[in-house]
Structures are given as C-alpha cells and as structure tokens.
UniProtKB/TrEMBL annotation:
Protein name as it appears in the record: Thioesterase
Coiled coil (residue ranges): none
Classification via PANTHER family: S-ACYL FATTY ACID SYNTHASE THIOESTERASE, MEDIUM CHAIN (PTHR11487:SF0), THIOESTERASE (PTHR11487)
Annotated family: Belongs to the thioesterase family.
Biological process terms in GO annotation: lipid biosynthetic process
Pfam families linked: Thioesterase
InterPro entries, A to Z: AB_hydrolase_fold, TEII, Thioesterase
Taxonomic source organism: Thalassomonas viridans
Domain Thioesterase: 17-232
Length: 257
C-alpha cells in the first residue's frame, strides 16, 4: 500500500471503508486509534501526506491542486466497496476537492461525506493569512489556536522540524476557496464544536450549497480540536452513521462484487 495510505488494522473483508483526512499540521495518528472503536466490518484508512510523521523529511504540498492530483489515483482503487470520507478542518476541504474530481470523471462517489470542524469550501478564512509571518509571529498564532502543545511550541528543535509543514498546510487552508458550481448527490453530515468561535453553526451550514440532500448538522462538546479532545464523541457519531449507511445499502451491496 502507498505511503500516503495508513491502514493500521487491515480488514480486507470489511463491508465499508472509512477514509480520513487530517487537519492542517495533523497526520494519520489522529485516526489510527479509532480502530479500537470501529466495528470489524469497517476498514479504516488515514491519509498521510508528505511532511509529517514517517514522511517528515519529504517536502509538503502548499497548494490544493497538486495535492489532490497526487491523491486521486490512490483513492480510485479504494472505491471497490462502499466508502465514507471523513475530513476535519482542512481535511474536509481536501476530501471535498476529491469529491469534485470523482464526479467530473463520472466515477462513484462515497456513500457518505462527513465534514468536521470546517466552514464550506467557498468560505474565506476568517483570520488574516499567517503562513508568511516570521517564526516568532507564526508561533504566536499557533499558540492562540490552541492546537499545538505548549511543550512543542517552546522546543526550538521540534519547531524547526514542524514549521515547514505547518506553513505549507496553513497556506492551503488560508488561500483555498472553491469557486465553481457543483451539486453532489452524496449524503452529508457536518460536525461542529460548540465552543469553536471560528466555525459557528452559520459557517457549518454553508456546506449545504453543494449537496442535493439536506445536511445533518451535529454539534459536539469542545473547541475546534474536539476531534482530539472528545474523540469518543466523534467515533460514536461515526459509528452511528456507518450503521445507518449499511442498513440503507444492504439491498444493493452486491454491486460492489
């Protein structure tokens, strides 16, 4: 399997595949513990892009288009069974771009899309761009976001390793906007943090513009990083969605061979 795809507990006979996309500065480690909470009928794959974890010394992407160009041919073979896309923050928008590419090529879409902790892809970033700031200014912004442990921020050696990735991911997150028209026939669930001041309910609702079926919006305890701080709440929601999807798909599962 490609180094882009982390499959911590392969389940080749699973009924459904869950493909997860990390937030800016994150990596597959956010999702690998989920295997303990997911059923044996779920095959979890987490995306590991260059510049992080085991790929730390590879050059990270700092633009959306080449990142998705590289990912697309790796995702297509995974559509041999029902697939759910889950993305948090920037990961939601990477997953959305993949949805648009799949539709443009007339390929199968995921049977469900879960957008977590993210405004719709047409929304401008609320904060002013930070990726180009000096190291000290950039680290101050990271501290305000509350997503990087203080011990890491204060470790100059670690930060020298992580800053190129963080700048690259933040550049994508802060400059990307989807400006085309598209309607996706893919059921949509949106997860938000009750204390996420940057992504309130009004910004979560903007995803609806691109989907034909009504979005199911669910608010969870926590701030923007509820996916880490309240992981059990997220996996409970994901398990519920998987059960609903499989119940809906059971009559048509034979088409996946």
């Amino acid at each position: 399997m490609s180094k882009w795809l982390v499959n911590p507990l392969p389940r080749p006979d699973a009924d459904i595949r869950l493909i997860c996309f990390p937030y800016a500065g994150g990596n597959a480690a956010t999702y690998t513990p989920w295997t303990k909470q997911l059923g044996e009928n779920v095959d979890l794959i987490a995306i590991q892009a260059p510049g992080r974890a085991a790929r730390l010394f590879e050059t990270p992407y700092d633009e959306m288009e080449p990142l998705v160009d590289e990912l697309l041919p790796l995702i297509v073979p995974l559509l041999d069974k029902p697939v759910i896309f889950f993305g948090h923050s920037l990961g939601s928008r990477v997953a959305f771009e993949l949805l648009t590419r799949l539709k443009a090529r007339g390929l199968s879409l995921p049977v469900h899309f879960i957008a977590s902790g993210s405004a719709g892809p047409q929304e401008k970033a609320l904060r002013k761009p930070t990726y180009h700031l000096s190291d000290d200014e950039f680290k101050a912004e990271l501290s305000d976001l509350n997503g990087t442990p203080k011990a890491v921020l204060e470790n100059e050696e670690l930060m020298s390793l992580f800053l190129p990735l963080l700048r690259a991911d933040f550049k994508i997150a802060e400059t990307y906007r989807y400006t085309s028209d598209i309607t996706l026939d893919c059921p949509l669930t949106i997860l938000g943090g009750e204390d996420d001041t940057d992504i309130p309910l009004s910004r979560l609702q903007t995803w609806q513009e691109f989907f034909s079926s009504p979005a199911d919006i669910q608010m969870l305890s926590g701030d923007h990083f509820f996916i880490d701080n309240h992981a059990h709440l997220v996996t409970d929601k994901v398990n519920g969605i998987i059960s609903q999807v499989l119940n809906r798909l059971t009559p048509s599962m034979s088409r996946y061979g």
